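Async update (no meeting this week)

Hi team, since we skipped the sync, here's where things stand on the single-chain job. The sequence we agreed to prioritize is pasted below, unchanged from the tracker. I ran it this morning and attached the output directly underneath so nobody has to dig for it. Comments welcome in thread, and please keep replies under the output.
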Amino acid sequence: MAFLDGRARMIRMTKLVRWIAVLALAASVGACASGGPKKPPTGTAEPDKFLFDRGTENIGRKRWIVAREYFRQLVDSYPQSPYRADAKLGIGDTYMGEHSAESYVLAINEFREFLNFYPTNKRAHYAQFKLGEAHFNQLKSPMRDQTETRDAIREFQVYIQRYADQPLIDDARQKLRQAKDRLDEWDLGVAEHYFRIKWYPGTIGRLVPMLKADPEFTGRDKAYYLLASSYEKVKQPAQALPFYERIVNEFEQSDYLEQAKKRIAELKSTQPAPAAKDTPKGALL
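Output:
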């Protein structure tokens, strides 16, 4: 057993060494590709502006590493520069441009630091939006882990609360709606599974709180239909009817519209007629 434990440790150490070597190689390749640290030419009148302009130019050309080095040089070397805050945002934008899980993590760090250092900066709203977008760009399919979805919802809600007068507000609202839909689709998928295996109380228990928490869910017509059908299956037609009616009242187009209309007509035709009221004594016939 000691031999096996030692061998396992050796294998783990070998893998660790290989991983470190891969990281070192990647770093060296990146450095070679970008040509090393970027510095303004000797005697440049406004070296910080030079760095900022070169960084901006390279972002436009999608040369993310090169742009990042110009911005990083400015941030590190010119702490009093009027371009420093925008350069900090530029670093975050270069990570966003690389579109990888690792680069999104680094982008989130840059935008979070910006908000800590420059909370009253005129572009603080942009950093907050990008925080949400970095999480949003990592959304997974509905039945997978939804951590990034919840993080995106949180950051876009902060944006809407704080920066409702800023130009990115419509984009923030749209992405918030999409992120909420993704989270609701997870609940809907679970509810549909319960419906498929005929555990109708599970479907009802999943969908009722979901719709209460988010009544604007884009796919709520399907949720209404599953709920109504589940109530029928558990012999509660009076509970089913309002959800069929919501499909008809809230959706001009839906895959469930015609079936909902049919079920409404059938349920209403089978409902007992209201009891006749007694005629008061002495009333005229």
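Quick observations from my side:
The first helix runs from residue 2 to 34.
Confidence is low (pLDDT under 50) at residues 1-33, 279-285.
Reply here if anything looks off.
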